[in-house]
Design goal:
Shape: globular
CATH superfamily of the largest domain: PurM-like C-terminal domain
Radius of gyration: 20 Å
Mean pLDDT: 92
Distance between the termini: 36 Å
CATH topology of the largest domain: Phosphoribosyl-aminoimidazole Synthetase, Chain A, domain 2
CATH class of the largest domain: Alpha Beta
Largest sheet: 7 strands, mixed
Number of domains: 2
Number of strands: 14
Oligomer: single chain
Order of helices and strands: HHEEEEHEHEEEHHEHEHEHEEE
Number of helices: 9
């Protein structure tokens, strides 16, 4: 007899519509106003009236394969945690790492991952200060999963949130999109494709530090990971109650990445990135921020790709290369499972 019970499907982890519905359902069980903001990190007041605030974040990494062009699960875990803290304007300081390892996992691969985490953390200026290891029976996991948490400090006066986009803001992206997702796909056994695409996996705290030094009034920062640029922009439009227009010709995409997307039938707007950010900045401040971004390695290819408008509230529209306009919706279903 077939069960009528609802079950979790891969699309619940895509960052798209089903993820949003699942999160809304989960939030019914919790009352924290900090949690309900659903930013990349929780922003917490320090007791005794300190001017600084704490940023706290957590994430899990289940990427397949664990080694891919441009990175590995260890580098990804550190960069992802650093970036989530950076997206609320924090200076990342400390990270925890816990590993769930399947029996039979090669010890040399585990050492390689640990070395990668160490190297990435050092380059980002953060410390891995605590952790945990669990081993499960063969067949009860898929090699290795990592879970991280991170702590950072937010300076006085910063208020960066996905709910802060304002009419007239310029939308800046720090570089080419879709490289991470396509690099991971090219490395999967079922495709066995030769590709020059490398993941953009990178820590962005030095980039955000330069941006905030140039302008302390950045409204929104977001790293468009699961669900890609399109889904991130839709979440910002909904939370801020604004309309967003982006220009297709302005969005930077490498030729080889675009070609790989076309071959596999993926829309690059929905493909995950792991070393890019989107910033919403007032029109008056946008050039200053853009110049600061272009002065860094991570932001050298930054571009203004759109703006916030009064029309079509809570929606994202794309101006196409031929001059038309089309709605860009949140990702529906699961385009790329196990991508981060």
């Amino acid at each position: 007899m077939k069960s009528n019970r609802e079950t979790i499907v891969l699309a619940h982890g895509s960052g798209g519509k089903l993820t949003g519905r699942l999160i809304k359902d989960i939030l019914k069980s919790f009352t924290s106003p900090v949690l309900k903001k659903l930013d990349d990190s929780a922003v917490l007041d320090i007791p005794r009236g300190k001017e600084e605030r704490i940023a706290f974040t957590t994430d899990s990494y289940v990427i397949k394969p664990i080694f891919f062009p441009g990175g590995d699960i260890g580098k990804l875990a550190v960069c992802g945690t650093v970036n989530d803290l950076s997206m609320v304007g924090a200076n990342p300081l400390y990270i925890s790492v816990s590993a769930i390892i399947e029996e039979g996992f090669p010890l040399d691969d585990f050492r390689r991952i640990i070395t990668s985490m160490k190297k990435t953390a050092k380059a980002a200026g953060v410390e891995i200060v605590t952790g945990d290891t669990k081993v499960v029976e063969k067949g009860n996991a898929d090699g290795i999963f990592l879970n991280t948490s991170g702590l950072g400090i937010i300076g006085k006066g910063l208020n960066i949130s996905s709910a802060n986009a304002k009419t007239g803001d310029r939308i800046i992206i720090s570089g080419t999109i879709a490289d991470h997702g396509m690099a991971v796909m090219s490395a999967r056994k079922e495709f066995r494709l030769k590709s020059v695409i490398r993941s953009d996996c990178a820590a962005l705290n030095k980039l955000t530090g330069s941006m905030l030094k140039a302008c302390g009034n950045i409204h929104v920062l977001r790293d468009p990971t699961r669900g890609g640029l399109a889904t991130s922009l839709n979440e910002i439009a909904e939370k801020s109650g604004v309309g967003i227009e982006i220009n297709e010709e302005a969005i930077p995409i490498k030729r080889e990445t675009r070609g790989f997307c076309e071959m596999l039938g993926f829309d690059p707007l929905y493909v995950a990135n792991e070393g890019k950010l989107v910033a919403f900045v007032s029109g008056k401040e946008s050039k200053r921020v853009l110049d600061a971004m272009r002065g860094t390695v991570e932001g050298k290819n930054a571009r203004i790709v759109g703006e916030v408008v009064r029309e079509h509230r809570s929606k994202v529209l794309l101006k196409t290369k031929i001059g038309g306009m089309r709605i860009v919706d949140t990702l529906t279903g699961e385009q790329l499972p196990r991508i981060c």
